[in-house]
Amino acid sequence: MKKAIEKSINKPSKKLLKIYTQTLVVDACPYCKSKKFYVHGKYRFTNRYRCCSCRKTFIPSTGTSIHYLHKKDLFLDFAEIVRHEGILTLKEVCKRLDIANLTAFDWRHKLLNSVPKINKTFNHKILCTDFSIRFSQKGRKGVRDESYHSSANSYFDLSNLSQIISVLDGKYIDNKLSTVGPLTDKHIRRVLEQKLKTVNRFIYLCKNESYKKTISSKTIEFIQPVKIIDDSKFEQKAEKIRKNNFDLKIWIGMNMKGVATKYLQLYSNYFCYRKIYSFNPIGKKCLNLRYVWSVFTLMENFYKTFIINHTVKDYILPTKRKWKTSFNYSLAVSEIPY
Predict the structure, then answer these.
(1) 280 DSSP assignment
(2) How far apart are alpha carbons 241 and 245 in whole angstroms?
(3) Cβ atoms < 10 Å from Cβ of 227
(4) Are residues 186 and 163 in contact, defined by beta-carbon separation less than 8 angstroms?
(5) How far apart are CA 236 and CA 147, in angstroms?
(6) How far is CA 53 from the centre of its chain?
(7) Ordered domains of the chain (ranges, CATH)
(8) Which of 66-70, 186-190, 229-233, 278-282 is the least confident region?
(9) What is the pLDDT of residues 301-319, one digit of tens each?
(10) What is the pTM of this model?
(11) What is the pLDDT of residue 124?
(12) Which of 262, 274, 305, 309 is the most exposed place for a label (fewest CB within 10 A)?
């Protein structure tokens, strides 16, 4: 049995070999992002490289969604299922691929982290609104998830609602988890200042006065000049953004049976991306993202920072899973989920 495993490792499948030879492109060091590196021997069936700056060695898959995977061929099968059928329940995935529940959970979130970021700066006529999804700690050991046990009246308790700001510019819709609790100008500014540079017309589809306070603030120089108006010509686009937000809530509630707030941003990114593009998790665009491993392993750290700094909730019962190589990679601000 041991010899059979070693043989399968040394002689990869044609699909996996194609990934390493044609799909994965080595253009920079995954650790420090330096462009200076050289071939430093072999690793099984692929080249090993060494960075001239940080002196660390790496292979083409370092930092990607297939980094540190033992069952790479099975993971590729899972990626094909997601590509053609979307995200299935963990029970269905475990049954099809004969894998453990935790493995299916980890693989799903590695693919969600590999959804390309729509780092688009909105600079035209935009629509902006916000919507809420009930705060959830689903899956966190030692915590009773109140999102399915609370009374109907608790839904109107703002301290139990995750607030998402949604921006539409033409065909692009971008959702950003802003806070858990009341939505204030502080949270709106944190989300919008990264997206808005020069806006001709800013139309908000809500009654939250914090938007007016944020837009008219003299400290917000990135959105000058801005006109807040009501325009019936934008009703079709307004319906589009409302429908997208409603569909997202239904998909999370019905199809996914609820999503922990910790991962809500990832699911929202996936949902919005698939509305515009075809998601191929093993294509060049997705598989060459070198920050996937680092973000996946540091997700709890990002969640902790978000809860403490931007919400009214308390951070409790942290997960105990840790990885030694999580902090070895340099991350840009745009690569952090929240």
Answers:
(1) -
(2) 6
(3) 12
(4) no
(5) 33
(6) 29
(7) 1-62 (no CATH), 125-259 (3.30.420)
(8) 229-233
(9) 999 999 999 999 999 888 8
(10) 0.89
(11) 64
(12) 309
